[in-house]
Write a structure and sequence with these properties.
Blueprint: E1 7-13, H1 20-32, E2 38-44, H2 51-64, E3 72-75, H3 82-92, E4 97-101, H4 112-120, E5 125-129, E6 136-137, H5 142-158, E7 170-174, H6 175-184, H7 192-202, E8 207-211, E9 213-214, H8 224-241
Parallel strand pairs: 1-2, 1-4, 2-3, 5-8, 6-9
Antiparallel strand pairs: 4-7, 5-7
């Protein structure tokens, strides 16, 4: 088996002490059953709870009982944003394919099996989607549906057309593509997903959207009003920042 991982899994985390353990065990159990080598990178975004301590304990325990490979923990000195955390993880990752997934595993890690074949078909960025006919989605709160509808409409008009769901937290990239996008990224809040896709399309990378399973998990830190305004302004910033692409 090659020493280089085939798959890198990045998990951004902020104050996730109540669920990070279950998510990490689920990811580690799944990856340990796969025929390829993998790595897991947790990027803690300045948590002020026990998130980092739990991650460290799980790694130490897993290594001692020889059940799981040790992962990598990166810590931001302060809370900067999900986009910043993912960019850090991407630059650190060494897998041929780099996936990021939300810490609550709203999309089960096993859904990666739907994304990986698309890289064999020649795509450079493969993203999970909750808005396709074959998507399996547990009903979202009304405000999430409203935000999604309005934001996706704005995205198609202002930034990236032809994509049903830019915000699903389950995206995979070829390593060299991930590194190039992360180096150009300037949006560190929730709008970073759109920036990634905007850079990818302007750079000529092939994007594929794939229907996935998604379940609503309680504990979201999204503010319906504040974050909607911020994300809309990010769309305008993306166009301006990358106008030379």
């Amino acid at each position: 088996m090659s020493k280089q991982p085939y798959l890198s899994v990045i998990i951004p985390a902020f104050n996730e002490q109540s669920r990070i353990a279950d998510s990490l065990y689920a990811i580690k159990d799944y990856l340990s059953e796969q025929p390829y080598r993998s790595e897991m990178i947790v990027v803690d975004d300045g948590s002020n709870d026990l998130t980092t301590e739990i991650v460290k304990f799980i790694d130490i325990y897993g290594k001692e009982v020889n059940e799981h490979d040790e992962g990598t923990l990166m810590e931001n000195l302060k809370n900067v944003g999900k986009g910043y955390s993912i960019a850090r993880g991407m630059m650190r990752a060494s897998g041929q394919i780099i996936l990021f997934t939300d810490a609550d595993l709203s999309t089960p890690i096993s859904e990666i099996e739907k994304l990986l074949p698309e890289f064999e078909a020649g795509y450079d960025v493969v993203i999970g989607s909750r808005n396709m006919e074959a998507s399996v989605v547990e009903k979202k709160p009304w405000y999430r549906d409203a935000m999604s509808l309005l934001f996706n409409t704005a995205v198609r008009l202002i930034s990236v057309s032809g994509i049903n769901d830019t915000q699903c937290g389950f995206k995979a990239y070829r390593r060299e593509v991930a590194h190039r996008i992360a180096m150009r990224q300037r949006i560190y809040g929730f709008g970073f997903d759109v920036e990634h896709l905007y850079i990818a399309r302007k750079s000529g990378f092939k994007i594929k959207e794939v229907a996935v399973e998604w379940r609503h998990k309680e504990g979201s830190t999204v503010d319906p009003l504040k974050d909607s305004i911020t994300m809309f302004l990010d769309l305008l910033r993306i166009r301006w920042i990358h106008r030379m692409l």
